[in-house]
Amino acid sequence: MKSNKALSIYVAAFLDELVRSNVKHIVVSPGSRSTPIAMVAAEHPNINVWLNVDERSAAFFALGMAKARREPIAVVCTSGTAVANFMPAVVEAKESQIPLIVLTADRPHELRDIGAPQAIDQLNFFGKQVKWFVEMAIPEDSPEMLRYVRTVAARAVSTSLRGPSGPVHLNFPFREPLVPITDDPDIWESGLENRKQFVKVPSTQRDFQSVELKDLANELERVERGLIICGPLDRPGFAEEVVLLGEKLSFPIIADPLSQLRSGSHRKQIIVDSYDTFLRDEYIAEQLVPDVIIRFGAMPVSKAVLLFLKKHPEIKQIIIDGDDLWRDPTLLASEVIHADPIGFCQSLTRVIPIKEGVSAWLNRWLTADRLAGETLHHLGYEEQEFEGQVVLRIAESLPDNATFFVGNSMPIRDVDSFFLNNERNIRIMANRGANGIDGTISTALGASTVSESLVLLVGDLTFYHDLNGLLAAKLHKLNATIVIINNEGGGIFSFLPQSEHPKNFELLFGTPLGLDYSHVVNMYGGQFKRVENWNELSEAIRNCRDIEGLNVIEVCTDRSLNTEKHRRIWNTANKKIKENWD
What fold is seen in the domain 386-557? Predict the structure, then answer.
């Protein structure tokens, strides 16, 4: 079999520079044209290769690894429609600011646009969904080309990480023969020029300017009715700093479950977690309108928060976000400050004097939150076969240092309502960039390569949508517990205006599937259990750390009653708040 020395050295130099730029993992989908990258990667001593057959699942698996590790992950596929299957995960990576190094193999230029098999137009294939696209040069082993390929590798990693983080796409045209030489121990040093790393690009963060800081501090010191909103934001150390800022200002903090503020050892006295319940009530919401809001991260999951903000355009909204980001679906931002959120909190906290005592404003928020939380917890357990109770049981049963991955549609909304403040170190994750249900299993399993124990909560449609993703658990012997809320269809639609038009609701939106998922779980070597007594769910979650492999638990609920039960609990909680206030 012929081998290609120039191609081998070129690809080796590229992958080696990725490794020297701190890329430790590559997800590979099998294919012919991508042979050079796959075979060379498998031989590199410092890169871990993860095989995933389905390209769509592979890209989401890489996304989950990058999300959990907070570092770039490479993913490679062959040419043609394989590239198209990367698109959903690339979109999610772009919207959720996850660094992915997307490597696609391609036909060389002379085989394009002439009807050659598996040849499509891959140039700028992902368009604006990636931060940077490069059509790589045809492989050569000249010193200049090896310097080129190492430089591109380092630049790709740096670009993927530079705020806001996101995916980059490198397209490799390869000529046959495609089989590389991998038995030369000196191949990894090609083009390195006796350096430890060919080119290093340090990350930079914009500092919050002292003049801006002083002006903002003077303004906020005079504000009595202020509010901090923390949306999805996964930054170690942020919770402690934003709490210090909130305490100094005497502002309550609305904490989205993906803000990572609801779990951990940091102080939580001013963290509000039941806002989605009481902001639904018009009377209560009107008593809690602030003069100023400081918002960090993306917009929270809660629609009640979004509507609350849109109803009050007079509120001054100050949004703290990364460079080149503009995340304001309310279109009401008064000021957008591009700054590192941790640095911003630290800088502001240093110059703002602490306000003594608990203000009447802060106490009003905290009272509403306490009463709503107590009602959610009590009635959530009291309602029979209630989907919110699944979240309550998971939340109370998760072991310390667990990862709780949540599917979109109803699960993330129930987590917003029923996953309340706790002292354990629980990391909550979800694909909230584009908010899709595709690839959820694969993303969670990618994250499970990092977590001590991982529990994924999904609806039955989300589970069905990524059945191919279960293969990763079997191939790589991953440990994960998946809880399926099976309400025979799309539960979220029962809360939307479509539900008021019953004629074709089940056909178009309810979409009951009638599938027995035990068969597919068994096919992938997992354990399947359909919960009859919901106490079994709590026990299964508590034991998830001790169970090896794939563990799938199905909880059946009645979709037709779920909406009614949610509204009954919300109304009871809000009635209790108003009675207490009066």
Answer: Rossmann fold (3.40.50)
